[in-house]
Fold:
Amino acid sequence: MTKIEEGVKEVISQNSRYSVDEIQLADPIDKFISSFMADRLARELKRKFSQIDTTAMTNELFTTLKKISDLIKRINDYYPNI
Amino acid sequence: MKNIISLICFLITSISCFGQERIFSLGYGKTFVNNDSSTLSLSLDLNRIPGQSEKAGGYYFINEVIGSEGWGYYLKPTMDINIGSNISSSPNNISVGAPLGLVYDFRECELGIFSFYIDGSPELVADKGFKNNLYYFSVNSYLKYEFLNDKVLLNILSGVSNANGARNQFDKGTDTYGRLTIPFFLKLICWNAVSCSGKSFKRINWTNSFKFNSVYADDSKINTDNNYIYFNSKFDFYFTPNIGFNITYFNGKEEPAFKRNNAVIFGLTLSR
Structure:
């Protein structure tokens, strides 16, 4: 598991009733937190991954970014050297 | 039968930015206000729950964090268009705003997750002909809550809003306008199901919004009661992950004209 995968699962876990081990890359994000809380999820991700664009992330969550794996790929774009 | 309850048929078309479940619905309904005629309605919502100026989800101009302890700030556009050819089936209003605010994200607890918002927003609420307009600055604070597990999603939003500004009427001049509002929103999604193709989905999606308005400054000819309630409830029952049946009921009086709405609509929902 990469540091970004680990970090994303940790953030999702801290905002849901699921543990890190229960979160799978193929799972839809809205299994853990709904689009009603998209703005919050983007802010929580920013607190973990300081290089991401929170506003862009907010508007992409649950639209173009629907699965945990989509989210990890998108955050990878902000960290090209990892 | 006109003196009792008029049962009037109308075709309703609504397109909602409502989370990401419902994208389109077509309906057929009846109003329960006397002396109405057949009507056609259209509703569009951006970052709003119909009839309520909530700020959940949706598109943001800015959503940023402040430090690392839960604070953030945001700027987002809001728009709500409810147009109908008849006053009893639609509030017939057009609302736009741009709330700028602060948010605090509480740590997740046993009950679920909470976020607290406080913002200020210039807003325009007009009737469909732009002949009766409200211009005001509103200050809003509200708490947003979510509980989510395998079986149930529950979202609740409630708070308080204060607006101060002016009412401008095309041929009657300008009056000062002020109101205090307590909004309440509840969304419940439940009942697990699996489609023939093996895709899992929830059968029931029940959304309610309630708003209590206390108007303390206005044109006395329009504002005859001072206190107004507006209620909207929508029940979706999904046959498949993408197709459902919906029933919508709304009742009450809403800005800017505070005319009585009372209607039920039966429709078909398409979702993604």
User: Anything to note?
Assistant: Chain B has no helices and 16 strands. Chain B has one domain: 8-271. The longest strand of chain B covers residues 173-194.
